[in-house]
Amino acid sequence: MKALHKKSLSFAVSLLVLALATGWALAAGTATEAKAATGTATVSGTVTLGGPAPAAEKIKMAADPVCLQQHKEPVMNEMVVANGGKLQNVIVYVKDGVKGAYPTPTTPVVINQEGCTYHPHVFAIQVGQPLEILNSDSTLHNINAQPKLNKRFNIAQPMKGMKTVKTFDQVEVGVPFKCNVHPWMNAYAAVLNHPFFGVTDSSGSFSVSGLPAGTYTIEAWHEKYGTQTQSVTVADGETKQVSFTFKAS
Amino acid sequence: MLPVSFHKRFHGFRRVFFGCALLCAAGFLTWLALPDPTALGKEPPLPPRPSPNLTVGKEAFENNCARCHGLTGAGDGMDSKRMYPHPRNLAAGIFKFRTTASGTLPTDEDLFRTISGGLPGSRMPEFQRLPEETRWQLVYYVKSLSPAFQQGNQKPEPVDFGKDPGPKRADLKRGKELYTQLGCAACHGNLGRADGPSAPTLVDNWGQPIRPADLTHGWSYRAGSSPRDIVERVLAGIDGTPMPSYIDAISSKEDAWHLAYYIQSLQEKPRWNRSLEAVKLAGALPATADDPQWQKAPRTDLRLSNTLYREGELLPTTVTSISAQAVYNDQEIVFRLAWHDPNETGTTPPDACALLFASDRHLKGQLGSLRGWPASAEAPALDVCYWSAEKKTAREAAVHGMDGLEIGTEPGQPLWSEAHFSDGEWTLLVKRPIRPSSEPLLFGVAVWNGGNGEQGRRRSNSNWVDLVLE
To answer: From CA A41, how far away is CA B8, in angstroms rounded?
Structure first.
């Protein structure tokens, strides 16, 4: 009998605690949604490499015939991709000035291992957004993610078509991904808590749109040349040009 | 018409109401799942463990661990640079040997096991000599060295390793299939000799060169070579190294065990010996490595080590053991040596091997370790047989050092030799004339892996062993 009383009591207490917790969570959820406002301002521009770009190196894939056979042309290292002085693969994002919290997209960002290279080579993802890691090669890849703030992982994907979904829970720019089996394979991610980012294309261009009016710190991040920041103020509907130049070293 | 705000509020209420209803259900289920409080006493008691005392732990750490791991655990102790693998930076919060998911921290038991059992094949010794209580205090102290144990997002997530089917139910054929399918050979090689195509390029998370385990050398598996140990490494991965977690890649726990039993079947039992016993044959001596006459000659396995520093840092070598056999007749003696090398290298610097002979057993003390030979210019000359994959020939000379033989300035006497490389293994036969009256009594081996840039004093060395003519 005594045990039954204890059980009933614990039931009642757990119910109360859970009810309070959920009520709070729902209320918080409502508040979050209310804050997540996008605007109509845009920051766009180009990233330039000042000085001669280092010669791209040919990747030696001979160690794995599965990799080698997939390429007719030599594959070049993607560390510095500069076309006519315009720097590709620079993550440009709002570092400071974003107010409120933005919803977590449920659509995954896909990183594909194909031809023994990562596609894309650099990307941005939001906190909590699923990252789908896909192996399109008929060979073993290991995905060795080495963030400093987020949880690390090193997982094997030995079969073609294998998918693994991971998420990151901390804002962190420059999370490296490596494949130890194929040491030339690497990729970088920026984990952000808002959707205001872009990655420079082959013409070195980026565009960050949907910004609410305000003053922002914009940072450009490159895996070799590091970071640069600029401050920019935009009004509703305005498009501002911001350009960055990294010194070739 | 109701004001909009009412609608919003109403929706809000409805949400909370639904939330509560959901919680009622959840709470009920939780209640059902709760154990009867009176039944809790029946749980088997946990083994007693001391409560943490960081003062005791700190003292034990300073006395036993700091020499290698450093006072702050950063892996920078006074002996750390002379060690390969380097001592772990305990402050980084990255631990190799865990029973937990990739990227998560080890359990207390995992740390306790590493401290108690050591890591074979590395310089981490076992600490069984310390009382169990002290080892637990070391666990608590090690955990206090890294902020990772205080942060929330790397909490140990124990992995389910399934059930050991036992050796009789283990399916080695399935295990072998999995070994191929899962790409184990990319690093560990087809026969497990650490000679996979990716082996020479592997680096750890700090960019330091790292070798895959030679799966035929069970004695060198860092955290144990039993099927259970292997399942743990395969499913949890070895954090900080290229070895990934296969938890999502292996579809069933049964398969993980089949693979583990197959890997165990690759292990060869070592025959560590202080002497090499040469067997006398009546007729012709074997001219090939697979001559059945070799079965008559007992094998001696020799551990190899290195001590070469450059600016205070150890230059790691890759060959960690060598198997030796010898047979002789009235005229000649033939040595058969076999060692694992990830890639055949005939160019400069080439793969190479030297056999060293000293005619007086009492020289052992004077010679010092073979690693340091020649100790000085006054050191006695030794007979050295030097073979390299570049010239595919062997020569012998009485020399004060091996440099001359290596670079070809010492003419020396040509010797008959026969070498063969396959699947990550060199097999070398070397024949020299026998001199029964003054037959050398001390024998040593040095090996160079040219593909790893090894030459000169950067080499793997055995200890001196007695050569015994039967």
So the answer is: 30
Contact B433, B338 (CB under 8 A): no
Q: CB distance A19–B239 less than 8 Å?
A: no
> Which helix (H) or strand (E) segment is B26 a member of?
helix B4-33
Task: Say whether A183 and B201 touch across the interface (CB within 8 A).
Answer: yes
Residue B338 to chain A, least CA–CA distance (Å):
25
Alpha helices of B355-454 — where are they, by DSSP H? 363-367, 403-407
Burial class for B188, CB neighbours closer than 10 Å (0-12, 13-18, 19+): buried
- pLDDT band at residue B362 under the 50/70/90 scheme: confident
- The shortest C-alpha distance from A77 to chain B (Å) reads 17
B244 Cβ partners below 8 Å, 6+ apart? Answer: A142, A143, A144, A154, A155, A156, A180, B102, B237
Q: Domain limits of chain A?
A: 1-35, 39-247
Q: Do A63 and B197 touch (CB under 8 A)?
A: yes
Q: Are B229 and B110 in contact (CB under 8 A)?
A: no
- Just give the CATH number of A39-247: 2.60.40.420
3-class SS at B366? helix
A154 CB neighbour count, 10 Å cutoff: 23
Q: Enter the CATH code of domain B172-265.
A: 1.10.760.10
The ipTM (two decimal places) reads: 0.82
Predicted model pTM:
0.84
CB contact under 8 A, B186 and A155: no
How many angstroms separate the CA atoms of B182 and A158, rounded?
5
Contacts of B187 in chain A (CB under 8 A): 180-181
